[in-house]
Amino acid sequence: MVASPSRLQMRCCMGVRMTGAAAAPAASSGGGGAGPCGRSACEAPEQERRLRALFQKLDVNRDGALCIHDLAEGLGRLGLHRTELDLLKIVKAGDKDLDGQLDFEEFVHYLQDHEKKLRLVFKSLDKKNDGRIDAQEIVQSLRDLGVKISEQQAEKILKRIRTGHFWGPVTYMDKNGTMTIDWNEWRDYHLLHPVENIPEIILYWKHSTIFDVGENLTVPDEFTVEERQTGMWWRHLVAGGGAGAVSRTCTAPLDRLKVLMQVHASRSNNMCIIGGFTQMIREGGPRSLWRGNGINVLKIAPESAIKFMAYEQIKRFIGTDQEMLRIHERLLAGSLAGAIAQSSIYPMEVLKTRMALRKTGQYSGMLDCAKNILSKEGMAAFYKGYIPNMLGIIPYAGIDLAVYETLKNAWLQRYAVNSADPGVFVLLACGTISSTCGQLASYPLALVRTRMQAQASVEGAPEVTMRGLFKHILKTEGAFGLYRGLAPNFMKVIPAVSISYVVYENLKMTLGVQSR
């Protein structure tokens, strides 16, 4: 298979080579002890002077700010051609005050942040770790992605890459003709080209696949082209499903206690954690702590598979490059995929709640419970609480994703120099915090959903709507009543995240998924 230059351009975030004044920000790092990863302190004033000169070159209308028109015309004068979409991405990425343009401070901040991302790409391609990318390394990188090219073709890619529009001028990344690219050449070439999801970041920062806290409402993870083409994606999903099963089983007593507190706790029946466990053991013995866990584990496989397939189809439907999804696009696709998956397996959610609330001897098993519900309440009973469940997807998935991405980007900007690998503790901390925030935001809806699912299992309970139930809880218990069971729910987050991570890593090795 022959890879065209545009293929490598897409995968390696390739952009444009800056010349003259435009090359100023990418000054040589040959002096002062600075290498590919940074500049010495003595270069800072000179760097700011050169950035100011570049800013003034691009500021066509001399108003002290860069809009899309300024960038298009200014870069055009420098012989550089960028699409309107690329220019819009640059402005959006650096526009902190949301005024649609970049002042000098925002321009400098964007370039510095952008350069950090370029370092990660350069490091991931520089397999020999010698500060240069040669033809062999390009061949190896493309082979990792499932694309086979010859060394001669790689040399042509090094020598000549078309930029911007296909009719634009030819520029050369390898400026000194050595058939290698050093850090300065790489940085000059890409400096004003938007870079988004770097494969190495996608590889290390899995979130939804790794962490299972009992609620499968998170936005699905992205997979690199390499993971897709080598079939590693399904191994990740299987490892994630197995990790979720072990995690949910280990934390099942806390999960059942949460359900009991959501349904039965009130001002007149103030159920505490120790008292709840004592009551469960007294009523059904130690085994009763795991009631409802079987169906909770069984629904992992169909829900994960449906959500992943729906997510991929929705991404194609909205016409977005599969490895270039922005946060709001991931939230849209992930929320819709979650809604489809939840709709498909929702009867299992109702069964899980009823099995967790059952008394000793009430049902002989899951099938008996399902038959009992169907005969006494009809098919509609399997969709009780459906509306609050659907409404809970957006706040849970949105806040979880936003917090995780914020923490991830903060770490990448501050600490990612040679690798995007955060290490186990950073990953666990980010996953725990984002999951906790997502659960906190959607918890009132989750509580109302559980009470609606449990209506027929509570003797004498009247049929109420979601709105009526909210009003009843607020009137009789106050706002605190919407957070019954929150303590055991939060207590299970850290052990659930830790267990799922350890099991995931072990299953991943067993299935032959190699971490870099």
From TrEMBL:
GO MF term set: calcium ion binding
Protein's organism: Nothoprocta perdicaria (Chilean tinamou)
Solcar repeats: 231-317, 325-410, 422-510
Protein name per UniProt: Solute carrier family 25 member 25
The EF-hand domain, residue ranges: 46-81, 113-148
CC terms in the record's Gene Ontology section: mitochondrial inner membrane
Family to which this protein belongs: Belongs to the mitochondrial carrier (TC 2.A.29) family.
Compartment list: Mitochondrion inner membrane
InterPro entries in UniProt: EF-hand-dom_pair (IPR011992), EF_Hand_1_Ca_BS (IPR018247), EF_hand_dom (IPR002048), GDC-like (IPR002167), MCP (IPR002067), MCP_dom_sf (IPR023395), MCP_transmembrane (IPR018108)
Pfam family, any one: EF-hand_7
BP GO terms, sorted: transmembrane transport
Keyword terms: Calcium, Membrane, Metal-binding, Mitochondrion, Mitochondrion inner membrane, Repeat, Transmembrane, Transmembrane helix, Transport
Topology relative to the membrane: Multi-pass membrane protein
SUPFAM superfamilies in UniProt: EF-hand, Mitochondrial carrier
Family annotation (PANTHER family): SOLUTE CARRIER FAMILY 25
